[in-house]
Every structure is written in structure tokens, then in C-alpha cells.
Amino acid sequence: ATSKPPGPTPLGTTPRRLLMRSLSLLLLAVGSVAQSDEAAAASTATALQRACADAGVANASALLAHARKLHNGDDGRSTKQPAEAAPLYAAIAAANSTSLVSLDDACAAATALGHMYLQGDGVQRDGERAYDLFQRAAAFGAPEAQYALGVLHAAGFNAPKDTPLAMTFFHFAAEGGSVGAQLALGYRHLLGVDAPKDCGKALLYYSPVAERVVSSAQRLRGGKLLEKVRLSLDTPLGGGGKRGADDDVIQYYEHSARKGSVDAQLTLAHLNLHGARGLVPDHARAFEFYSRAAAAGEAAAYSHLGHMYAQGMGVEQDNATALEFFRKGAAKGHAPSQNGLGYMYMQGYGVAQSHSKALQLFQKAAERGNAEAQFNLGAMHIAGLGVRKAHDKALHHFTLSAHQGHTLALYNLGQMHLNGLGTAASCPVAVQFLKAVAERGPWGSMLMEAHDGLLGGREEAPLQLYASLAEGGYEVAQSNVAFLLDEHYMASPDSQVVGLSGEALAQRAFSFYKAAAAQGNVAAELRLGDYLYYGHGVPVDFEGAAHHYRVAAESRDAQASFDLAYMYTHGLGLPSDVHLAERHYDQAMDASADAYLPVQLALLELRLVAWWQAHTGRSDSPVLAARRLLAATWARGWGIAA
Q: What does the alpha-carbon distance between residue 401 and residue 409 come to, in Å, rounded to a whole number?
């Protein structure tokens, strides 16, 4: 068989001529675009050079550093100037096509500017502009921009809720080293949220983050405290007042300290050492106040001065002076001083190394409940320093220390449970410890930033900040997002916030309450019951509501016990049962004295229901029966089939 010869090429041209013509047209188009791009690049380059000159810096990297100082207030020591930082970020981000800016710097600037537009920080809030900036940076592989997009799509804030797309962004961001994305995926695999429940994968994501926290904790002391403020109906601003309240408190302490109050001197020293109440860490000022308290013979001041000299915090490092202060405090039976002195003996700092003396001092301090001493005893038992190696004793001491929130103890417990040292190996238990450690990193400062925003009267920015941590598995952030959305929905459901309004607000609040409840939040269980009972954002489901009320009631929540009793009284989602209703009303009174009057009134209703059932032989509630009768009468009056 012979093949048919090809027919003539259309328009009488050959394939080669067609190819050449297409290439010529393509080159002309590319040339035109190139000329346009060159003009745009020249314009952005000029703008960038002008910005560098105005800021007095040599290049784009230095300009980025300058913009960050303006934006963040130079580590909090100067006034934040976000409005001045925004145009600098914009100039750097726009010049990404020039040789003047590295791709990393351009992406970092675009991501920072995106967050500013998202939160209305120094610029007019613009969710679409923020999304566009994140998208541009994410296209070049910027992990933090990818994580930001993942949060927006996971939460459904200012973007369509799209779980598969969010997971894709989280995956690539985690691969690029984004801590937020690693936390998000670790949390999802640990609890099976939007991903298969897989302890091994959760461990894979939590481990590097926890290691970063531990590494930082071993190197740095006296860092800024992370205050986890929980919002509730009783404390809608987390118990905080206006911004000026902190200034008033500080002024009061300073006045008292000048008058010689040792308690005020210690308080100011602590606040300056760690950074709280609006203060940033200031070791020199902390040293000043500790010295005043030490002059009055305060043992706690001796301990802190010992640590500051031992670590060179605010003063020149001096082991001899550190030992002097630790000995003064230990002589007064002060546990932290005993621990500090023990550590000097354990390491041989300024004294001959002696594990036996260290052990004795740690034991004395640990008996007084000192978490550091408990941790050090655990470390000695696991390493066999001055004692026989004993993993079970190490586990015991680490557990005591971890109960007081000691970060390194939590990490060591995670490793021991993971490897079966002193206890049966358990991946889920190990990962829970590592999760607790991972959530203690500096990224958790967004909780404080969000709370500051609330105190400043803002709503969008705190929600965005809380959402970023909520998607990373922070239970308190999940609870706070849910509460803020809930409050907005109840107060003004038709007004928009984070791109949501109406029932969409309620649906997202329900989702975040559900996430918080899955991590043991009892108040969230109660609100889930309310949402299902009243049908806020979800279909009415009395059985589902009863389930959540029961879970909360088992944790002695008075309101949940009351609600459960009411449902037993009227047979809502549960069989009508007078005896169980009375039992739960009693539990409500036992849980809270405030429940007494409401329960007494409810018991009158319960007596009526019991009488009705006894005299009619019916098992339902007279209240519900009356409602059904009225509904049927109304329906007949309007000619509607009941």
C-alpha cells in the first residue's frame, strides 16, 4: 500500500515559510512587549533609586531593612511608622524585574505589603490588593506568601473557602520552610482535620519547629513573654482595658519603687526583663530595679542578679559575682537561688565541678516546687550525672517541671514518649508535647499583636492575625476567631467583616468553635450546642445540640447542665425525662451559685410538666403541646394544611 501524498499547503505557502512568518510575528510581538517592559523596568528602577536616596541607603536590601524598622518600630524601641514603610515595600516589590532587587527581597516586600493591605496597617484596607500581592510572591515560590494564601482559603476570609487549594499552598510553603505552614500541616495530620490522621506525618512537621524553639530557649534568656489572652462574654477584650491603662500601671509601680517598695521594684524588674504591659525587654533597666531590691535584702532579686551576671544580660558576664548573689539567696532558702547555685556546680562555672553538690541543691529547690530545679534533676537522671541513670526518675522530674510550663521539659517528655524511655512509646502523646513546644515560638506573638489591635478598636486586623494562628492549630486563637465572628454575627449580621456577612459569618464561627472544641475547649462545646439548637448557620439539630451540651456538662459547665435539663424537660432531641431533668438542674446549681434563681424558676416549670404527664398519660411537654395546638389553629385559620 502506498500513502497518499500530502495536499497543497493553504494559501500556497510551504510549512517552512509558515514557520518563518510565525516566528517573525512572534519576534515583533516580543520586541514590542520587551520595549514596553524595558520602559516599565526603567521607571521602577528610577523609583527604587530615588527611594534609596531618600532613605540614605545604598541598595534595595538595605532599603528593605529600613522599611522593616519603620514598619515594626525597630524591635519595639521606637514608634512604628507603617505609612512610611508601605511605599518603600511597594518600590522594592515593583522592581522585581530589574537587576537592582533580588527575587527574595522583592517577594519579602510584596508579602509584607500584602499583610499591610489585608489588615489596614498604614494603608487603606484592601483584601483584593493583598491577595494579588501574595499571589505574585507565591508564584516565585515565596513560602510566607504561599502560607498567607493558604490561610485565606482555609478560613474563607477575603477569599473563597477552598480546602484543597489551601492544603496545596500549605504543602509548598512547608516545603519552603514556613513555620506557619508546618504547624498547619502538623495540626491537621495530628487530629485528622482536612487530611488523613497520621501521627508520623504530624511528627514530621512539628519536630523541626519544636527544635527551633528549644534551640532558641537554650541560647536566649529573658525574652519577651507571650501573653495568651482568651476572649469570652465575661471578658470580650480579654480582660484588658484601653491602651493607656498599661501606662497608668507602670507609672504607679515606678512611683512606688521610688518610695522604696521592694514589691514594685521587683515587678518593674520582671516587666523590663521579659517585656510585658507594653514594655519591650530592657535588661539594663531590669538590672537597675533588681539591684535596688537586692540592696533591701530581697532574695528573689539576688537570684535574678545571679542569672544576669552568669549569662551577661545587661551586665558584663562574671561567674564570681553570679555565685555571690546565688549564695546570698540560697542562704535564705530561696529555691531559684538554690537552683542557680546548683547549676553553677553542675557545669563547673566559677567553682570546681561537683555533681553531688549540684544534686543536693537541685533537690532542695525542687522540693519547694522550682520548675528549673525539677528539670535539672531530670537531666541529671537521664544523663547519669552524680546518680545512676534512671529514665523513670527522669520522666517523673520532667513531668513535674512540664506541669509548670517548662519548655525544655515538655520537649524532653516528647522525646521520651516517642522513643519509649521510662514509659511505653506513644507517637500521639509525643506529638502533643512537641505541639505544645512548637506553639511557644516567637511567631506566637501574633496573639499579643491581635489583642493590641482589639484594644485599639480594630476588628479586621485581629481577626486576620488570630486566623493565621488558628489555622496553625493554636486552640486559643481558634476560640478567639470564633468568638469575634460570633459577636459580630449576633450584633450586626448584615454588616461585612473579613468578606463575610449573614449566615456565612455564623458558618465560619461554627467551624472555628468546632476546631477549638476538638482540642478540649468546653466553652466552644457550649456554643456549638447553641448554634445547633437555634440553627445559626447550620440546620436546627436538637440531638446534635444535646450531644455538645452533654460534653460541656461533663466538665461541670453550669449553663450546659441547665440547657440539657431543659431539653430533658421538653423532650427536645432527648426523651422527655423529669428525673434526668431535675438531676441536671441540680448539677447546674452545684457548678455555679449564680444558677440558683434560674434553676428554681425552671423547677416550677418542671413540676408543671410532671403534673401534666401524670394526669394525661402523655410523655410530651404541655408547653410544646400548646405550641403545636396554636400552630395547627393558625394554619387552619389561613387555610393551610397543618
A: 6
| Secondary structure letter of residue 500 according to DSSP | B
Please give the pLDDT value at position 430: 97
**Per-residue pLDDT at 7:** 40
Distance CA 356, CA 515 (A): 49
Cell 493607656 identifies what position? Answer: 244
Residues facing residue 500 across a β-bridge: 497
pTM of the model: 0.85
Contact between residue 364 and residue 345 where contact means Cβ atoms under 8 Å apart: no
- The number of beta carbons lying within 10 Å of the beta carbon of residue 276 is 18
Q: Which grid coordinates are listed for 565?
A: 435539663
Grid coordinates belonging to 332: 535564705
**What local confidence, expressed as pLDDT, does residue 38 receive?**
62
CA dist., res. 507 & res. 513, Å (int): 10
Locus of grid cell 540560697: 330
- Half-sphere exposure for 151 (CA within 13 Å, toward CB): 34
* Residues in the chain with pLDDT values less than 70: 1-41, 74-78, 218-228, 237-247, 277-278, 620, 622-642
DSSP string, 348-398: TSSS---HHHHHHHHHHHHHTT-HHHHHHHHHHHHHTSSS---HHHHHHHH
pLDDT at 28: 42
Q: Rounded to the nearest 5°, which phi and psi values hold at 500?
A: -120, 150
Residue 451 and residue 397: Cα distance in Å, rounded? 35
The pLDDT score that the predictor gives to residue 24 is 45
Residue listed under C-alpha cell 500556497: 12
C-alpha cell of 161? 473557602
Residue 156 pLDDT: 96
Within 10 Å of residue 43's Cβ, how many Cβ atoms?
13
DSSP symbols for 264-327 = HHHHHHHHHHHT-TTPPP-HHHHHHHHHHHHHTT-HHHHHHHHHHHHHTSSS---HHHHHHHHH
d(CA 443, CA 450): 12
**Amino acid, single-letter form, for residue 403:** H
| Bridge partners, 497 (sequence order) | 500
d(CA 366, CA 401): 9
pLDDT on residue 425: 97
What is the per-residue pLDDT for 14? 46
